Structures are given as structure tokens and as C-alpha cells.
């Protein structure tokens, strides 16, 4: 069973809806979740917020967080996940913001992706350095990691 199928089965069992907020993956998490028959039982909606303005408008990411930390940062990933949760009927959200490449800088290299996971109880963040493996590979790796984070957090939530 693939991870999206595991998410579907466990979400349905626990009656928990999911949502996502994506930047560098451009909807790949939402696509993976909705590829499955019956996904409407666990997936509420997805937000693709590629620009800073979209992050502010759709998710309520504070402009000051974008100024202080930049779009690719854990504070912004946290705000994105919380914004997706608040803007949906879901009980669990994941967010992704990163530099898929090409490009990046010394301080924010290609392949750096920040993730947020939010439930009604808590928000957690992490940064993964996937490295300069190319845009497609970074995006796929980020999608897969986000799905794994959702599953991990879903397993912690009570039935």
C-alpha cells in the first residue's frame, strides 16, 4: 500500500479531513491525495500559494514573517499550515515552501524545503536539505516527505 492509500484508510477510520498548502510543489500533494478513489472522504481542499502575496491573501501569512525570515523558512511554513487549517474544514494540514531549483543562494541553497504540520492541538516545522538534485527530483522528494509527515501526525491523533 502506498502512503497516500495509507493516509486515506487512516483518515477515513479516524474521520479526519486533511488539507495542504503548497508553494514549490505546486499542487503535487493535493494531486497525490486526490488520485485515489474515495479521496473526498479525507481531503477537504488544497492551497497553491506560489507568490508571497498569495501566501498572505489565502493563508494569512504575516507580511512581517516574509520580510523577517523569507518565504523559505520554518516560521512561514508554520503560518502556511495554520492558515490552511483555519481556511478549511480539515483537522490536519501540511505545508511546503522551498527552493526546488535551479538557483538558490549560499544562505538558502537549492533543494532546501521547509515543512509545517498543524492540527488543532499543535504546529510543528522542519527543514530538509534535499540538495541540488534537480527541480523535478526535489519536488517529488518534497511531496513524498509531506505525505509521510501527514501520516506520522495522523497516527498521533486520537481515534
Write a structural description.
By secondary structure, the protein is of the alpha/beta class. The longest helix has 22 residues, at 135-156. A hairpin with a 3-residue loop joins strand 4 and strand 5. The chain contains 6 helices and 5 strands; from the N terminus they run αβαβαααβββα. The model has no long low-confidence stretch (mean pLDDT 96). The two termini are 21 Å apart. It has a 5-stranded mixed β-sheet, sandwiched between helices. It has a single domain (3-156), classed as CinA-like (Maf protein, Alpha-Beta Complex), CATH 3.90.950. The chain is globular and about 45 Å long. It holds the Pfam family CinA. Residues 3-153 form the CinA C-terminal domain. InterPro entries: CinA-like_C, CinA_C. This is Damage-inducible protein CinA.
Structure summarized in a few sentences:
It comes from Sulfitobacter mediterraneus. The protein has 159 residues and is α/β, with parallel strands linked by helices. The chain has one domain: Maf protein (Alpha-Beta Complex), CATH 3.90.950.
